[in-house]
Amino acid sequence: MKINISKLSDGEHFYTFIVKPSDLELDEKRFNKPVYVDATLEKSKRQLFLRANVYTVGRFQCDRCIEDFDMVLENSYRMYYVYSEEESKKYEPEEVVVITPETNEIDISDDVRQMVLLSVPMKLLCYEDCLGLCQRCGKNLNFETCTCKVEAIDPRWAPLLKLMERESLGNETEN
Predict the structure, then answer these.
(1) Within 10 A of 98 (CB to CB), how many other CB atoms are there?
(2) What is the three-state SS of the chain?
(3) Ramachandran region of residue 90, left (φ > 0), alpha (ψ -120 to 50) or beta?
(4) C-alpha closest to that of 41 among 90, 91, 94, 5
(5) Number of Cα atoms under 13 Å in the Cβ half of residue 121
(6) pLDDT digits (tens), the chain, 175 positions
(7) Distances in Å between the alpha carbon of 128 and those of 88, 116, 118, 132, 172?
(8) I need a labelling partner for 133 at 20 to 30 A (CA). Which of 10, 30, 64, 84 fits?
(9) Contact predicate 61/67, CB 8 Å
């Protein structure tokens, strides 16, 4: 995904890219749909300012029920391309690239790849209210009900429960 800037006039320019995940060195088993990029490049005499929105679909395994599911991934970023180190100090280091006046094109492939990877959430859920698997029998509780007994006692409260049992036994012997 290269943008030719050698003969670009000042002003806004719009670009749309549709690329295969393999072109961005993304895992094709996980990312099997094209990656879409809508980019706007504003050129002025001092700099180029890029805004890009990145969309794709990833195939993941739910962390709760281990079912495979597709998730739409969206992310956006911006990048300043400036012609001097002095100019680059005005921006956040991760949002600026210094280029020379002889630079003919800007390659956004690596930035897009990073945006796709950063848009994958840490916790992968097929849906927010996924019930997951039964801890005892392993049934997927989204599709089946199980008859396992659920002990809803938090282990951190076990010493308190023992204390309560001792007190109730003590009260019974007093009566």
Answers:
(1) 14
(2) CEEECCCCCCEEEEEEEEECHHHHCCCCCCCCCCEEEEEEEEECCCEEEEEEEEEEEEEEECCCCCCEEEEEEEEEEEEEEECCHHHHCCCCHHHEEECCCCCCEEECHHHHHHHHHHCCCCCCCCCCCCCCECCCCCCECCCCCCCCCCCCCCHHHHHHHHHHHHHHHHHHHHC
(3) alpha
(4) 5
(5) 16
(6) 899 998 899 999 999 999 999 999 999 899 989 999 999 999 999 899 999 999 999 999 999 999 999 999 999 999 999 999 998 899 999 999 999 989 999 999 999 999 999 999 999 999 999 999 998 889 999 999 888 876 667 788 888 888 888 887 766 655 5
(7) 41, 21, 20, 11, 47
(8) 30
(9) yes
Structure tokens at 84: 């001097």
Place of tokens 């007994």: 149
**The pair of three-digit structure tokens given for residue 127, joined into one six-digit string:** 């849906």
113 near 26, Cβ under 8 Å?
A: yes
